[in-house]
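**Backbone description:**
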Amino acid sequence: MSKQESDAAFENQFSTNRPIEPTGIPNLDQVLGGGLPRGALVIIVGPPGSGKTTLANQMAFAAAQAGQRAMVLAALSEPTSKLLAHLRAFDFYTDELVGDGIQFLSLQQFLSGGLQATGAEIVAATRRAQASFVVLDGFRGVRGADMDPQAARQFLYDVGTTLSILGATTIITSEADARDPAFFPEATTADVIIGLHFDLVGVRQRRRVEIIKMRGAAPLAGLHGLSLGHAGIIVYPRLESRINQTDYDPQPDSLSEVIEDLAVALGEPGARVPFGLPVLDSLLGGGLTPGTNTLIMGSLGTGKTFLGLHFALEGVRRGEPTIFLGFRESYRQLLLKTNPFALGQELRAALAPEGALTLLRWPPVELNADTLASELLAVLDRTNAKRLIVDSITELERAAVESGDPRRVENYMAALVEALHRRNVTALFIREIPTGSGILDFSSQPVAILAENMLVLRQDDQQGQLRRVLFVQKMRFSAHDATIEREFSIQTPEGIIVHEDIRNSPTPPALGKQSQGRRRSKTPRATSSRSQQAQHRREPRPPDQEDSPDAGANPPEE
């Protein structure tokens, strides 16, 4: 075939819509925008140890497993037997596929004849094997056969074009920095360029993947998480890019439909998401509004996790699939913590295989923000969960910072909140605040701004006795009682008990040992970004105002 005929056939091939085929790499197809076009020339580029050979061979085994004939051509100096020995360590390796479904050959014997002869041998071997998936592993070794950069570029063009006409997808691995200008001339020949990043951040190794070039598709932008283990390569799409690419119309199709849905939701008796704690739910107007995010803040020992467990188990009682995402306390520690209470037995039953509660737990060590988000959203979609508790949000924010960009926290948390909104999940985010905090300003914290609701827990020392109190700082879509803090205690076997307003009680409530104390005086309220101009200390109300039955009615936050 002449060069003119080859070029014409190549252009015709690319002018039509080619079938998109899966790569077999978890989540990589999503990042690529669907998969790889059949007959594409794909260059995988990255530094030593970044996983280029593993990725290419994992894709070849996936193609063979799907019924295609695959061929791997090793241009490295090591024999193919050594390559196979390395691949046997991975779960995707299958002995039965080697030899028939996938062939391994060495190019070393052909390289001495130059690039043109090597290219001819590759095409001939592809025809003999009737391969539709070809991997050329180690282009640096091929490039060494001719030091002319133009010759290397011509080799890629000729091989890629010819194999594409034969209907074969070609994967070429190259050892280089994907952003190195010296690589650009070779990059112009590729349909797809997958860049692997492998760097050292402090004492921590970090792997990421980037789709630098993708003809005919819209890949997810930016750097995505990547892990390399016994399962091979797993990709974790960047959360922000997932949210941005999802089809979303900023304007509703019909405002009347939205209003109708809203009227139905507001009119339904069960259109609240309660904690199962009567006094607290009353403070919240019956419970949290569905599909909102609530920030629960408190110092050490105030009962934040316990309150989260109450919320989780109330969801289980109502038949709502619930997820508890924890970082600090293990499965065993949660069971020990709840064992003296009635919640203990409920927690064991809820965590059973047939239970409605799913516990996700990551040790708070070197967390990957994209891995966490991908795993969490996958479980939310698989279980169709309606409630989520995150204990604590600090670990998620730290993971976002350690991803390499300290400025990422705002976008990451906004993307997570948006993902939960689209799934209509009602979420609790737990955050620890310093002990003994007085006036608190949360306006600089992304979650405090994004969350629709805010609940503050405090533990005070009053004449040698510890006293727990809570109050609703804000509730954006509902009227709520924000006039006074409520005392609460943690008692066996009930767990958390929120007490009635003691202003209207003839005698103080019977509190547990952990929260007994005299009738409290007012404590400072937390301030949000909407109340920075307000006075720094709450002034006591006149007696007639405190006794007014309407004193507790607080309109929804705007």
